[in-house]
Fold this protein.
Amino acid sequence: MTDDMTVGLKDLRRFATVSNQIATAKMKNHEILELHPRALLGPEKKALIDGQNYVVRRKYDLQKGLYDIQTIRAGDQLLAERVNGQLVMSDQKFLNRSLPLSEKAFQLLREYADAHGVTLDQALDQAIASYTQEQRYE
């Protein structure tokens, strides 16, 4: 297994932002948490604090949680799993996406995806195909 397949913090943040679906992480204790760019969030629970009803969520540190994650999924797609003690990517799309997007480019891509009813992955694939065709005709 190569090091480029091992999941790090950068990859966790990318998993959290690249899909239209919410990425979830299954932990060692079988708890399922939502994966966000800055933290792992537990399920919503109702709490009564000072006579007021609130919805609260536990927040886990992403760096500490990295070692307890067993699998990462976006919808029904398995993105990463723990094999021989290491969290490794199981989706080839993420191995090929090493170029980071600027915040502006990401927002434009998200707007395009929302306007055309496609996922971010599909929007990115369409943008790459369009760019490749333009380069061919120049």
